[in-house]
Amino acid sequence: MKIKDIFLAKKFINFKHSYGISSANFTGESFLILKIVAEDGTIGLADSVTAIPFGYEDVDTMIHIIRNYLFPTIRGMDSLDIEAIETSMGKATPGHPMAKAAIDIALYDLNGKILGLPVYQLLGGKFRDEVRIGGAIGISNTKRMIREAHNLMQRGCKDIKMKIGINPQDDLHRVQEIRRAIGPEPRFYVDGNQGCNLTEYLPVFKKMEAYDIAFIEQPLPAWDIDGYQRLCAALGTPILIDEGVYTPHDLMTLIKYQAVDAVNIKILKTGLTGGKKISAIAESAGLPCFLGSMFETGIGTAASIHFAISTRCISHTSECFFPAFLAEDVIEGDIYSIMPESWAWELPHDNGLGVSLKPDIDKLLEQ
Questions:
Q1: Are 273 and 334 found together in one domain?
Q2: Closest Cα partner for 296 from 331, 264, 262?
Q3: Is 72 strand, coil or helix?
Q4: How many domains does one find in the chain?
Q5: What is the CATH number of the domain that holds 261?
């Protein structure tokens, strides 16, 4: 089906409570909502989010790039020609992976609706029946972080991530206290969001290993490949890369320099097409994969679930939980806003991504 039109809107959504990482403390975020329209009126949805300060794209730049460079080059193309569309967008402008990812996700939603299939069927079919969910603790004061971790465990969460990266000794103390609070059973890992430095944190990471840390995620700046190479060589705990992998080329470079032990794939960064390529490289290299979150609405959460359902090497818990942090979601039914008791999302059955916009959000797109 030929691509006819596109609608874009920016919406700020408050969080239910603050969420801190090494570079910022968030109380809300600006989201991109995208609707692509085929010549028969079928629509495909996608979302994205301001990645600054831990990434380099924001909603305004994505809207500009999509309107002025990406969409003009794909208008009139067949929505099923994903490889050709990806090539055309690459020729239109280098970089801007999140802007390209939003179009890619919307096209899969569109194509699923046209073909009468859920998106996971377009991505290789069902590999698993459900997607296990983990929980995350932002940086705040130690008492609140311990309370949040204990609450997650009490509610049945089996995988807990703690943000670090401001003060190494505080981080070590919090790891000790949270592990004590949750006990030995939950899988527990830490995420620096590029806020750590090798000199101060390498000795601290070695001490953290005594507390059964499953992964250390993106502790150093994404450009510091030498630093990651040294961390991978020095630690028994796997180094999980997130912000350092937007494209298959990024992962190939890290593998070449032995600077990665595991990969956190985030669909808003890679798109569904790019995510599949990255997962294939990771699987070939024997690297386990997470499915991460970067403040998605219910649209991006649905896309991530379809990806995980269809992708064999997503061997660890997903982070498809962020709509539960939002004061409001953009999709009808708020179906991803409350964590299921099982801490697992079930197999989607509706065509496309299986979500629709609330009327007020749809009107926002048409303004």
A1: yes
A2: 331
A3: helix
A4: 2
A5: 3.20.20.120
